[in-house]
Amino acid sequence: KIIILDFGSQFTQLIARRVRELSIYCEIHPFNHLPEFDASVKGIILSGSPYSVRQTDAPHFDFTPFHGKLPVLGVCYGAQFLAHHSGGEVLASSTREYGRAHLQYINSDNPLLKLIPANSQVWMSHGDTIASIADDFEVIASTDSVKVAAYQIKGTQTYGIQFHPEVTHSIDGKQLLQNFLVDICGCQQDWTADSFVETTIAELKEKLGDDQVVLGLSGGVDSSVAAVLLHHAIGKNLHCIFVDNGLLRKDEFQSVLDSYQHMGLNVKGVDAKQRFYDALGGLSDPEKKRKAIGRVFIEVFDDEAHRIENVKWLGQGTIYPDVIESVSVKGPSATIKSHHNVGGLPDFMKLKVVEPLNTLFKDEVRKVGKALEIDPNILGRHPFPGPGLAIRILGEITPEKVAILQEADAIYINNLRSAGVYDQVWQAGAIFLPVQSVGVMGDERTYENVICLRAVESLDGMTADWCHLPYNLLGKISNEIINNVKGINRVVYDISSKPPATIEWE
Ligand code: XMP
């Protein structure tokens, strides 16, 4: 594997993605919390950073243990860090170097630059520049304005590059990473979805033996893939619980339950609708609604978990972005997670935790799901918030409002599917607004509620743009909702992006 030491750059996760796209396994670790460097580690990549090496509180670590022993590739800050601490000089650039540049000089005999043509376009993003280097450094690539765009420390497999190979604007960035990882580090490109499935199932078998595991399914991609992996490893000893909180999409509980059963999972569907509606009664504050739903879910799940004898483990669909420790520059103590006080927790939370997906990014989870032949309808589904329709009904929840929203939402989503746009949209849903407005239907005056349609494009939900759905499609959906859903006489479309709006309305 490859270790990526993170100095806090926004690009660190992207480096990891690129390494994995080359079918090589890598892990991100904060620079101030070093992992164990056993024989499985074939090389190290040092990330960029928002800091300058010239700042007194800049991230610092002792690289002497690796120097000359393992191949190292410093990227941006990583390159400046190595240069600065090896007798070179790093200064502020006269102009901030940002954007496209071209490697006018390339030492094409250098293994790092194999097959990279002269003049190759690279992406720069830095405020500092390496002004001079120590005698044992050799410049292997330069641009017009950056002499030390890439270097090697002579007689070692330590390299530094000032540009960002992980960004697609660096046209030959992938080739450079491949040169480093395969030729210099000697990595095999054998980390694929199929190999992940095979090794993970074997590891789970070994780890869990004959133990019983309980896992909560949500209908989403992560918990479904985690369940199928565990099922392949331990079969009926995996007990899945799928709770109907009364806040799912129309008919979703039954159809998802059917597909889980079809996959052979040992799954129990629990109808807890009324418990959730009771807990939500009278609440209109979004955070209070979220808390109530979280609390009832834990109670219901705990009750169900107690029905399983001898359960030892809690299975979870946690994925890698949730476990990557973020870099803290305030010293090592700040990165250590606080331990939960187990005293007051429900019993299932005291179980040992097994998280088979905690090394994977979201797109990798989907690939693993595909390798496991999971229903494409489950793998391709839009994200759906845990509190479900409760945060898409503004204000107080009643079963009647849920039923109205489910009908409108089903018309919306079915139309997105039949128009062939569902897969281009990252997330879509209907929202029940607490607004009544006047309408006419036939000769009658109506005074009914408004449904808002929301559809966004996004990569990870952190930022989002509203989708430019075709007018004729929006018109068709609006007509169908108003003609078929009693209680709705007006449909609007949300044209706000995130930020400053959020995806959900609550
Ligand atoms: P926002 O509304 O913050 O949503 O732009 C970003 C993403 O998070 C989802 N979301 C939630 N998911 N529990 C969840 O499990 C929640 O309370 C919650 N609130 C928002 C939202 O659907 C979107 O994908």
pLDDT averaged residue by residue: 93
Dominant shape: globular
Strand fraction equals: 15-25%
For CATH, the homologous superfamily of the largest domain is named as: HUPs
State the share of residues found in helices, binned by percent: 25-40%
Q: Report strand order across the widest sheet.
A: 2-1-3-4-10-9-8-6
Helix and strand composition category: alpha/beta
CATH domain class name of the largest domain = Alpha Beta
CATH topology of the largest domain: Rossmann fold
* CATH arch. level architecture of the largest domain: 3-Layer(aba) Sandwich
What is the number of domains? 3
| Hetero ligands | xanthosine-5'-monophosphate
Q: What count of helical segments does DSSP give? A: 13
Flag low-confidence runs: 329-342
Rg over CA atoms: 27 Å
Cα separation of the termini: 42 Å
Quick one: biggest sheet?
A: 8 strands, mixed
Explain what you see.
This protein has 506 residues and is of the alpha/beta class. It has 3 domains: 183 residues, Class I glutamine amidotransferase (GATase) domain (Rossmann fold), CATH 3.40.50.880; 187 residues, HUPs (Rossmann fold, 3-Layer(aba) Sandwich), CATH 3.40.50; 96 residues, 2-Layer Sandwich (GMP Synthetase, Chain A, domain 3). 30% of the residues lie in helices and 25% in strands. It has an 8-stranded mixed beta sheet, sandwiched between helices. α4 packs across α5, α5 packs across α10 and α12 runs antiparallel to α13. The protein is globular and about 85 Å long. The site of xanthosine-5'-monophosphate has 11 residues, from loops. Xanthosine-5'-monophosphate binds next to loops.
